[in-house]
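Sample A.
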Amino acid sequence: MADIPNGEQVEVQGSGAKPYILKNTGGVYSCSCPAWRNQSTPIERRTCKHLRKIRGDEAEDARIGAAAARAATSAPNRATNRVATSKRATASSDGKAPPLLLAHPWENDTDLTGWWMSEKLDGVRAYWDGTRFLSRQGNPFYAPDWFTEKLPDYPLDGELFGGRKKFQRTVSIVRRQDMSADWKELAFVIFDAPGLDKAFEERISHVKEYVEDVAPPYAEWLPHEPCQGVTHLRQELARVEGLGGEGLMLRQPGSRYEVGRSYTLFKVKSFHDDEARVIGHQPGAGRHRGRLGALEVELRNGTRFSVGTGLSDAERENPPALGSIITFRYQELSNDGVPRFPSYVGVRIDAEPWEPKGKRKRA
């Protein structure tokens, strides 16, 4: 069977007058047909009969899993398609998210003196379960064997990191399923060992010793230092953000690894961030004529607004698909709950999709 070369597209005639457009963008395949667009699973795990026609059943089964492919293409209508894609998500993730520790935002109400401080990495959270990487939602990341060489057979918590200001490039590599050589641009930066029932200091010391003694080729341990107070924290935050970093993480001394959101872990940033669902594409004007001007997005509560900054020229030429979940940054919320000065960060590949709330008045 034929394939779609990376960065190119083909047309397939459907039942209507206009053909459907099939694309391969960095190893992620898409189709403009309603069956592909209306699926509620992450875009890299969608398929349809048109992709199968071009690439073949075997290639599509291998790309997203045989059970997932059958579920996505057997639905006779949109309602049953939602059920099928829900089953597919379960099949691709084994139905179980990893037991991760999550942070609360710091609201200046906790004295962080003596807490362990580290840079908040702008990468993709990854849980090494002893055999493979899993996303926050339990979906596998297809890392090459040479990337995972010498990683231990017990759990590690960390970030797949390509460097500061390279979040979208990191996402484009991690979401691919062809185990490409592009993984050489990344490192697995480890900041915890969840399986060790010990204090944080002992866990991070164990991680450091393992990395230094065994020397996994693409693994690093994340350094931490004691916070000396608010002045020290704000100085370090300014330094990290000045270098293009996202912010800081603060970990309570002596704390155990907890599953879920915990007040033993805080994230500190100058800007807020959130997730939104793409519901439309606004055409550009001026230098952006003929391509995307802004993304129409919707928060989980139904509030709708536009995100028009932070997008590269390449992203405007090939914008996130409708239904994609994006991350954006903003300064504050207006009195109506609308994010002020939102700026696009990237597509989330580990976010749980949600259904639209229905048409609401634009805020």
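Sample B.
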Amino acid sequence: MRSRRHAHTRASFARRLVASIVLVVAFVLHVASAGSSGDYYAALGVQRSSSSDQIKRAYRKLALKYHPDKNPGDEAAASKFSEIGNAYEVLSNDEKRKIYDRYGEDGLKQHEQQGGHGGGAGDIFSQFFGGFGGFGGGGGHQEPETPKGQTIRVDMSCTVEDIYLGKRTRVSRDKLVTKAARGTRKCNCRQKLVTRQVGPGMYQQYTEQQCEDCPNVKLVREKIDLFVEVEAGAPDGHEILFFEEGDALIDGDPGDLQFVVRTQEDKKRKIKRVGNDLHMTMDITLVEALNGFSKVFTHYDGHKVKIERDKVTVPYHVLTIKNEGLPKYNQFKKFGNLVITFQVQFPKFMEKHQKTAIAKTFPDENVFKKEFYATLS
């Protein structure tokens, strides 16, 4: 009996030891791969410090927006719906959220292998909304809408380099928040239909406003810092949502804060974005235009791109180099093109002997033009 008890104790200790080792390994893997996987908080547009109620409301809003019944045949919406479902499954569960905060996705996978489990995005939606009317024929009870503050939209200026590499930047802003104040106030006001008898067999109906007494609050401005992450290749006009990070609303939910990506031209290097392509203007000398050239362009991440021609290059000639443009958003290792327009820098002054040399080199202007344009074919 004692030997069996010792064997059971040793087995239990071994299981706990293995579980601890697995979590340590998961933590190491998470640190090593930080930034390579999706961020559940970013998926829902909430901060890591957000409350459970904020996470719940954020999921509700996004789930209604991206539900497949509202976006039939839209693969991007279906993917987003699955993404926010996975995020909510984790962040709405206190145990899973703690594991995710500490060990990341790898830790969650190990947790599930040890007995943890969860449903898919569709299951979460059904449990959360209880057959919300308009989706899947459920026709359940719809909760009354809570007033919500206006969405604040802010243009976020990004350089071409920011879009190529991606960036994470701190943004400070003053926002309206509610603070406790003296006294009480009327809150949760609603209209109620009242019937009153005004005489024998005579009744009058009218609406009456009914309110509750709540602790008084006031709106004040408070400085906050947010970290905004722009992913590599983010499209121009791409929206980054921060749920309920807008201004507070008395007797309602705070509004949302939305950053809109705006790409600025790289004037120093004469580069601008056109979709996923980078359009660059490159200056070459007249000698290079006539004799050919070989140049090296250092890209934003430091790798070298060789640009060369052995033919005559006319002004505004366009050269396209495949796969040297911007990363394609959410497409692994796919890039746009680098489109180069050449501008020939002609000399402002020529000596007489130089003019004579050119005249001797090209005695027949028509023949020169014929040979010149033949090089472009």
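B remarks: Residues 18-37, 136-142 have pLDDT under 50 and may be disordered. The two ends are 93 Å apart (CA to CA).
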